[in-house]
Protein: Glycosyltransferase RgtA/B/C/D-like domain-containing protein
Organism: Candidatus Daviesbacteria bacterium GW2011_GWC2_40_12
Amino acid sequence: MSSAIKVIFAQLNYNKLLQILPFLVSILISVIIIWQSTFYRWFGYETIPPPITDEFNYVWQGLSLRSTGLPVAWTTISHVYTGQKNNPRAGNLVGFAMKSENTLINLQEFKRNARPIFAKEQMDYMKGTELMFFVAPFFDHPPLGGLIYSLGENSSIQTADQVKPDAFRKPALAIAIITAALLFIFIYIITQNPQVATLAVIVYSTVPTYLLATRTAFLENIEPPFILIHLILLFLGIKIYQKQTRVPLVIPIILFSGLFGGLAFLAKEPAIGFLIGSLILLIINKIPKKITFAFLLSASIPMLLYFAWGLWLQKDIFLDILNANATRGYFGALKPITMLEALKFKNFPVDGWWVWGLLSFVIVSLNIKSRNLLYLLLPLFTHYLLIMLIGSENYPWYLISLVPFLAGTAAIAIWQIYETPKIATAYAFFFIAFSSSYYWGRIALGLKPSIVHYRWIFLIFTSFLLARFFFGKYKFVRFIWFIFLAYLIYKSIIYNNLFLPYLVAHWGNLPALSLSSF
């Protein structure tokens, strides 16, 4: 009898191990990929891509707020500060503070005389000396992102021109690693598939465009970790409510979900686009009004605190800046199209994985196999729509906040090619995503493009695809198709890892991809 019980328990443990093994393997692979990506994130991060004024500006804002309580930074909306309506006063920049009328202005001093201050300063921040217009108080952006990036700077720096990219970009590197881990959790819970979650981590952590974009100190890189936590909690809260288990936990979970969404707004205002999608999710899942109200209330708390702070600090300037930002010029209706080929930073490569990320959003949206995917697709869509409609100029960094979510849709689309391949989707992956890694990887190896080699790869891909398409009812064929796709992903990782150091070393001198004479 006892031996029979032992056999039963052994069998149960064996079955449990078989169930959990794919999850453990996926976690192991994801950890290895994230660990490996740290080298490629750090390689040349301080100079490539070349830092721009906005990155410095966020740090100036954060450092001044930490040191004096008054945000000071450079602005392009100078007319708001110099207009006679607000009775401005001239000053000069001393360290990270403003000095006016022989008085160093901190928060207490400013509240005694709340007239805005402006200063024209000659600054050299890697691009040569430029005349820059500094203002106090600076309200162009909420302060959270600047505060986070300023943590990378040494506490001993005294002046604005001592701020350096090798310091303030370090938090971005850490944030990217945190984002990768959160992305794994989020994709896993909405797909219940650890392999898809690992695929998302692979795409996010190896694609050249994604690696380059996520190591910059833009506010858009601060949004994703807050939004991912927000969506994870939102998903859990709604599912707990629907299953009627641990119902008392629903409101606290939803409250924290809203709070993290509100904190994303404090990184940059367009993050509210994600929250619009989340609100729609609450409505379509028929969540009670009191829970939805709790979500809106908690999401509003960080926003209301920010508005209250701005109005308290200098009401007229704060409102004028809000109005100026809301009425900025619009780039035009071609804005979405111009971003399809590549993330349009200067010298960024044409990267098929960027195109695949955008295309995969459409592919997955047209083939939604589970309502859980809406937790990714709907907030992503409403955020993208908001960027397209309210974003002023066609700045490429506006789209950086999409990166981890596009990595998620890219992974789901690849998995759909494995599970239910469609000829068009499979070839789109081959010609757009894989071919991009293949091309740039061979360039990095110093190999000339070979049409014969590429044709053979195409024929092999086609053979496996047709076998899966016509004989997919056989487990052996599906297994071979899985192994083949896994090999393509592995080769993509290798090619991407080869290309990134090459790209940094040859920045601005990549081979031309078109005939410039025609």
User: Anything to note?
Assistant: The mean pLDDT is 89.
